Structure formats: C-alpha cells, structure tokens
Amino acid sequence: MFKLFTAFFMGLTTLLSGVTPHSTATPATNQQIVLSQQEIRAMASDRFADGNLPLGDNKYTTTTAKKGYIYLCHAKSNANGGGAQKTGSWIHGSTWNIKDKIFVTGNVMWKNATFADSLTDGTRTLSGDDVPSHTTGNFPIQSSDPAYQYDRNPNSIKAQSFSDTFPAVPTYSDTPYCMGGEAGIMLTGVALFNGFDAGLRDAAAYEVQDSCQGHPQVSGEYHYHSLSSCITDVSETTVIGFALDGFPITGPKVTDTTYLTTDDLDECHGITSEIMLDGKKTTIYHYVMTEDFPYSVSCFRGKPVSLQVENVQQGKVQNSPVPSTTQGQARMIPLGQPPSVLAKTACVNKTQGASCSFSVANGTITGTCQTPPAQNFLACVPAGAKGGIPQGQGAMPPVGY
Questions:
Q1: For residues 138 and 313, is the Cβ–Cβ distance under 8 A?
Q2: What pLDDT shows up at residue 326?
Q3: What is each CA distance from 13 to 31, 134, 199, 217, in whole angstroms?
Q4: Sign of torsion over alpha carbons 72, 73, 79, 80
Q5: C-alpha distance across the termini of the chain, in Å
Q6: Which pLDDT tens digit goes with each residue over 30-53?
Q7: Is 263 in a helix, a strand, or coil?
Q8: Nearest to 15, CA basis, from 248, 215, 193
Q9: Dihedral, CA atoms, 284, 285, 286, 290, nearest 10 degrees?
Q10: Nearest to residue 193, comparing CAs of 249, 261, 115, 126?
Q11: N or C: fewer beta carbons within 10 Å in the chain?
C-alpha cells in the first residue's frame, strides 16, 4: 500500500519543496522603513525598457534571505520534473528578452470562474476555483503551436477548490521566513508560484506560458510565475494579490514610464509604503511584483499560514480547448494535497520518533515522524513502512510545471 519515498521525490517540483518555514526566532520588533511616494518616485526607473532581463537560474538560498534570491525551505532541483524541453531563442547567455519571447496560442474563456475576497473578524479569506477571470491559451500545448518546439506542457487547466484564511493585519517580522513553491493568490483568482521551474531555472524565461503569463502544472493548477500582462492596473499602490502570510502584493508601476525593480526592494521583494487596501489608504508592508527576477515574493515577512495555495479536495476539466472523449463531461480527478505532502505537514514542529497522523480519502493514517532516505525533513511514516512515505490515491505524478 505504501511505496518508498525515493521514487516519488525524484519527480517532485519545487512546488512541494518545503513545508516548514525555518524562521525560528519570534517575530522581532517592527523596524520597517516607511517610504514616502516622493522617495519611491526617486527610486523608480525604466531600466528594462529594451526588454532585456537577467536570468535567475539557481538564484536561491536555503540558509538566510538575500536580495535577488529566493529563500527556499528546501531546494531539490529536478531537471526531469517538468518545464521547457528546449532553450528559447529569446535567451542569450545570462539574459533573456521578454519582448522576443513567444506565447502559447489560444483564447479560451472561463465563464464559470469563481473568486471571493472577504473580511470577517480580523481575517481575510480568499476562495475560488483557481480558474482565471481572463482568457488563457490552449493547454495541453498542441504540436501545431510554435511554442511546442520549446515547451511540450502536457497538462490541462482544471478547476481547483481553495479557501485560504490569513490575518487581515499580518505581523511583520525582521527575520524572514523561507518559502515553498507557492507564493500567494492573485485577485484574478489564480495561484502565484515563485520564480523557479522544477529544475530551479528562471521559470518566466524558460517555460512558455500563455499571453497572460499563466499555465497549468501537473494537477491542472493554473498559475503565474511573474507579473501577468492581463492585470490592467499594476500601480505600486494597487493591491493585485495576497501572499500566503497575508501581506498584500502590488504592481511595480510608479509613473507612466517608471517602475520599481528588484534593486529597489528588500530581500523578500517588498517595501513599506502607503497603498490602497480594502478601499482605504493604508501604510503597510507589501510585496511588489517586478519585471525582473525573482518577480514576486522571495521570502515571507510574516509567518505563512500555509506553504501551498491548494488545500481542498477535487477539480474538473473545464472549457477544454482540446477534443477528447471526456469533453463536455465533468471528469472528476483527485486534487488537493497528495498523501506524501500531508505526511510532511503532519510532522511540522515535531521531532524524530514523535507520533503523527493525517487523513486521506480512505481514513486516517497513523505513524511516527521519520527522516526519509536522502532527505533533510521529517515525514509521518506508517508503522512497517521502513522510512517510506505514503503515496496512494492522489499522489503527485513525477512531472511538474
């Protein structure tokens, strides 16, 4: 019933690369520097007007946050775990040109998309089906699409079900928290991933997304790695999403011709300034999406409530642009947390040998927290599994985007 962990993790992408945020210190006294709009205007520029951007390949750290790098809880490169199969002609050495990059073709509409942002008793709840409010390209990428010569993404967009609750007023920590593969939820109703593909390459540069900079991963979860051109207002004062710690995400635009870049931001890719939040001018720390790597949240300034967006049960293929035997039917598939991920989560903040349990479709699995072979984290291993980690129903296949 339970397979060894090793085979599973060879295909695991950075989406599932970390579970325990290792900021062990209590959030420190708030020492944020509040920037005025005048100071922000003085910092802004149009340094990437020609479209040439630096590549972010392997720019990560697992020990401490660093500006321009992504602070991962765990880093495990998997070159065979998904992503583009061929380097695009728009990549030149250590740079790539966003103006030259091609897109996945298609103009698929999602009429049944749902998304809600609600405030109740000091908490914010974002919920929906991860289907975007804008159009998408045709996925899987078809052999007739010019994008296919670079990226053969075989995944379809599938409706998810998520409901994530964050503090409405997050607590800022001077000591950043590390992150997994997911960064937050955008107000277009879809997930935001960090800047890496499964091989820890610059995802925005290598992977071919649609014209809104989105694409699906192995479970059908549509997501961005970088700023979507289908978000119409990308002002630095406009909230366009929320990170998994509850802090807002804004755009980079300061004036009609100037933008903030990574160099203008802190090590988590944010600043503290006045923005419009829930219809009110509010001075708060916020992440800023930029044109250049790492594009968005690169560590968390508040304690994340989760390291994954998707946390509920099932999804279905919607508006599939590809003819198939299931087109027009509600083909249900198991989504949400695979048992392997739940096994890791069950041992967060526990020690080696501690009792643990987690629920799966067929009941509850109990065991002890152990370190799987060749890994550096704990997972809930059932009695008799000898270091393995449960896969079973809903386990993530060894492919990812």
A1: no
A2: 25
A3: 35, 26, 8, 10
A4: negative
A5: 27
A6: 478 999 999 999 999 999 999 999
A7: helix
A8: 193
A9: 130
A10: 249
A11: N
**Which single residue is written with the structure tokens 């995802």?**
203
Q: Are 182 and 123 in contact (CB under 8 A)?
A: no
Give the separation between CA 167 and CA 180, rounded to whole angstroms: 20
In angstroms, the CA 242 to CA 185 distance is 6
Selection from 320, 280, 307 nearest residue 109 by Cα: 320
**Token pair of 211 as six digits:** 């014209």
212 with 134: CB under 8 angstroms? yes
For tokens 């996945």, what's the residue? 104
Q: In this model, does residue 7 exceed pLDDT 60?
A: no
Amino acid identity of residue 281, one-letter, is K
Cis peptide before 140 (omega within 30 of 0): yes
Nearest to 8 by CA among 401, 390, 393: 390
Rounded Cα gap, residues 337 and 144, in angstroms: 34
Q: Residue holding tokens 């802004």? A: 44
For residue 85 the two structure tokens come to 């199969």
Q: Does residue 118 carry a pLDDT above 60?
A: yes
Q: Write out 317-337 in H/E/C secondary structure.
A: ECCCCCCCCCCCCCCEEECCC
